[in-house]
Amino acid sequence: MEAANLPRHVGIIMDGNGRWAKLRHxxxxxxxxxxxxxxxxxxxxxxxxxxxxxxxYALSTENLKNRPKxxxxxxxxxxxxxxxxxxxxxxxxxxxxxxxxxxxxxxADVQKLLEDGEKNSPPDGKFTLTFxxxxxxxxxxxxxxxxxxxxxxxxxxxxxxxxxxxxxLPEPDLIIRTGGEMRLSNFLLWQSAYAELYFTPVLFPxxxxxxxxxxxxxxxxxxxxxxxx
Length: 229
Ligand code: IPE
Ligand code: IPE
Ligand code: MG
Fold this sequence. Notes:
Layout: E1 9-13, H1 17-23, H2 28-48, E2 53-60, H3 61-66, H4 69-92, E3 95-100, H5 108-119, E4 127-135, H6 137-151, H7 157-161, E5 174-177, E6 196-199, H8 209-221
Parallel strand pairs: 1-2, 1-5, 2-4, 3-4, 5-6
Helix pairs in contact: 1-2, 2-4, 4-5
The structure holds 3-methylbut-3-enyl trihydrogen diphosphate (2 copies) and magnesium ion.
One 3-methylbut-3-enyl trihydrogen diphosphate binds near residues 16, 17 and 179.
């Protein structure tokens, strides 16, 4: 693969953890835990491939509204575990951690861990790893619009984009969704206007670094026109 044909920013909708666990007659939390392990391996591979930005969808605004409390508590438990221990391994690999989404409804200690995860990132990191947690594009766009109205600034594509959580990140070039569903489920809707989409039936815990490479290869064969000819 030519470096020139690699995406600068990859977004991943990490779906299929629950079904992966169900196939193994295990609780859904077992799938979420396996998904976190898979995510770490993908991030390492992305770092090796010199992908400068990787954004992972870990919890949507709709997940927070519509999932049972027990499952959400288990997800918070996993965030606690990964943001207090495993994050250090990712720092060593060169990850600068960023979190997008509304942290305010999350348990206070989880909010603190996520903030520390961002603050303690190595300033000379090689790539930006963004976690979308209680993230939803519609809420993000509405929030940006509200702040523009308050400021009295004219509404333009640029001014609106500057109020999004992703301000400072380049637009995603490639969005990968595992788990077989062919939808975006409120992930980076504005930012993905010209992203290449890659859908795979592989359930996220089975999405190995080699599967990730397959997505990069497919991306490298696509022709992006941005409305041109
Ligand atoms: C994605 O896996 C992870 C989260 C949404 C937290 P799911 O939990 O949606 O897994 P499936 O889609 O039910 O298999
Ligand atoms: C999308 O997966 C959200 C994350 C992966 C965090 P969902 O499982 O919530 O999506 P839907 O409900 O099938 O659209
Ligand atoms: Mg799902």
